[in-house]
Amino acid sequence: MRRSTWISAALATCGFLAAGAAQAKIGSCEGPITFGTTISATGRNSTLADRWVKMTEVFETEFNKTGGVFVKDCDKKIPIKIVAYDDQSNPSTAVTLYERLATADNVDLFLGPDWSAVAFAVSQVFEKHGIPSVMSNASAADIYTRGLKFTFGVQSTAEHWSDYYFDMLNTLSPKPSSIFFVAQDNLLTKDIVNWFSKRAEAQGMKIVGNEVFSPELKDFTPLTLKMRSAKADIIYIASYDSPALPLIQQMRQMRVKAKDVHEIMTTGKLIRTLGKDAEGLSGEISWLPGTKGDYSEFVTTVLKESDVDVLDYLWTINRLNSYLIMIQAIEKAGSVDRAKVRAALDHGTFKSPVGTVKFQDGGISDMPSFTSQVQDGKLYVVAPPNVAQRPFAYPSPAWQ
Prior knowledge:
alpha/beta
C-alpha cells in the first residue's frame, strides 16, 4: 500500500480519528462533542504538519482527562472527539472531506484547515452547512474579505507579521535609521515587505534597498554586494527558510554587516544548517516552550507527548490554538448549538499561549508573532517584553 493511501486509511479507521465513531446527535448533551478537521499528513505540506496527527490524538486524550468542556446548557462537562482525515495538501480533496464530515460524520463543529489555498476552497463548505470553523494557518487576506459568517482564522495576515519586531525597534536608543528589504518571490513574503516597508518609513527609517529574488536562485553575489554597500542598520529578509539559507551563508562569506539581520522564518532547519552563521539572527516565531501564557503548561505537555518540536513545525501553536479557542467558544456560548458558538466566536476574545486572540471584522485574528533571536546557538524570544526570555542583542555583535 502506498504511504499516502496508508495514512488516509489510518486516519479513517484508527482510534480517535475513527469517522464511524462520530454519530452522536448534533448539539446533543449526550456527547462526545465532535470536531471535524483535516490535516496535511501527506502531500507538499506534510513536512510542516505530519506529526500533527499524533499531536491531535494526544490533545484529545490530555484534554479529556479534565472531564471535557463545561457546557452550561447541559450543566456538565462533555468530552471531545476529533474526527480527522488526510487532505493530502490538496484543496479539492479537503473540500470533499469537509463535506463528508458535515453530512456523513455529522460533526458538531469544524477545526482547520491549514494553508490559505486549502482554506479558501473549504470555507464554502462552512458557509453552505452553517458550521463554524476556527482555522489554523490561513493568512491570505482575501479569505476574510468575502463577508463569510462561519470562517475564523487564528493566524494573522501579513500586515501584523512583524508588529512586535517593529515595536521593539522603535524603543531602541538610538533608533535604527536605515533598512534594506529582501523578499523571496512569493505572494506572502512580498505582501509582508509591502506592509512593513510602510511601517519602517512611518518610524523614520530610510529604505536603502528593496530587492526580490527567485526561490531557485543560488548565486547571491550581486545582491550581497548591494547589501554591503548600502550599510543599512537593519537587513530584513522575508523568505521561507530553504531559499534564505544560501543567501545568509553568502552574506557571511561576503562579510555583510548590519546592526541586525532579520529573517522572518527562523526555523530549526535554518539554525542547524547555518550553525555558527545563525548567531545573532533575529526573526519571528509563533511561540516557544518556556514562554509565559495561558495554557502554556498544557500545550508543553501535548508537544512533549507527541514529540513535536515547534522549531521544525513552525505553525504548530496556531493549530493547537484553533482547538483551544473552539473549546472556549463552546464554554462562552454555554451550548454546542452551532449558531450560538458562531455568535461567541464573532469578534470574540480568547486566551492562548501567545496572548489574547481577538477576531476582527471578517473573522481574522490580529495576533502578531513573537520576535526571536539566536543567542549562544539557541533561539530565544526577545519581544514582546512580557514574554521575553532574553533581552534583544542590539547592535548584534555577530553581525559587526
